[in-house]
UniProtKB/TrEMBL annotation:
Transmembrane regions: 241-260
Keywords on record: Membrane, Signal, Transmembrane, Transmembrane helix
Gene3D superfamilies (alphabetical): Outer membrane lipoprotein wza domain like, wza like domain
Listed GO MF terms: polysaccharide transmembrane transporter activity
PANTHER family: POLYSACCHARIDE EXPORT PROTEIN GFCE-RELATED
Domain Polysaccharide export protein N-terminal residue range list: 54-144
Originating species: Alkalitalea saponilacus
Protein name: Polysaccharide export outer membrane protein
């Protein structure tokens, strides 16, 4: 009789473990739905500040590469400042000017231009000022070549991801990374942002609709985005874990139980 009870316990134990894993792996809606209103929650305080400006918030960093276009009425100087890497117009790509560790670019005729602490607009103003001895009618445009961010953790697509422009909002970035996987913690998105004074770490709740148009609504080139996994993922449960597997195991258990009885 004791042996029979021990057999039942041995059979029951894995089933109880699977039950526990399954119900712990069920994800509440509050963890996965974007744009939730948290205002009615007890003790909630809006963690976000107001967005004062949208553009020109990104400060240029070392290793950024700039595409600089100079317009002037002098055709020879126009051609000189806007040289391309190919004679074929269809295949031509403009030269880029990398920012070195001293926040400087090496520009034709002018030499070194220091862009430390500059936004794109401020960099443009500095380049125009540096060109004044050579060009009195210079019009300059400055763009970042291939702006991108890095996605890590529970994103569908991980690695360095092209932004297409100098800034995108946080939900555009999530979409570019293929959205958050089912076991990613949307309530804890970590952004690591390089600054002149070192890296800044920001933690955001993607389910909070107050994030929209807040001071952290936009991400910038070179940001690192990290989504940590939920505990169920740490236990090895993945998207393939389904209720069908659980019911099959339970059916198998009852079949064995009926045979032993």
């Amino acid at each position: 009789m004791s042996s029979f009870k021990n057999n039942k316990i041995k059979i029951l134990s894995p089933v109880l473990i699977l039950f526990t894993l399954y119900f712990n792996s069920c994800i509440p809606h509050r963890e996965i739905i974007y744009f939730q209103d948290h205002e009615d929650k007890k003790g909630y305080e809006n963690p976000f500040g107001e967005l004062e400006t949208v553009t020109e918030r990104y400060i240029l960093q070392p290793n950024d590469a700039l595409i600089i276009r100079v317009r002037t009425s002098n055709p020879q100087l126009y051609e000189f400042f806007n040289m391309t890497s190919s004679q074929n117009v269809a295949q031509a790509t403009q030269w880029t000017y990398p920012i070195d560790d001293n926040y400087e670019i090496d520009f034709p005729f002018v030499g070194k231009i220091n862009l430390k602490g500059c936004t794109r607009q401020e960099a443009k103003d500095k380049i125009i000022e540096a060109l004044l001895p050579f060009l009195s009618d210079a019009q300059v445009t400055v763009r970042i070549a291939n702006p991108s961010f890095v996605a890590l953790g529970e994103f569908a697509s991980r690695g360095r991801i092209a932004m297409g422009r100098d800034q995108v909002n946080i939900f555009e970035a999530v979409a570019l990374a293929g959205d958050v996987r089912p076991f990613g913690k949307k309530r804890e998105l970590t952004i690591i942002r390089p600054t002149m004074d070192g890296s800044e770490t920001i933690v955001l709740d993607l389910t909070d609709r107050n994030l929209i148009d807040s001071d952290h609504f936009y991400i910038y080139p070179n940001d690192i985005l990290y989504i940590r996994p939920m505990r169920a993922r740490q236990w090895g449960i993945g998207e393939s874990f389904s209720f069908g597997i659980l019911t099959s195991v339970i059916a198998f258990y009852f079949t064995l139980n009926a045979i032993l009885n």
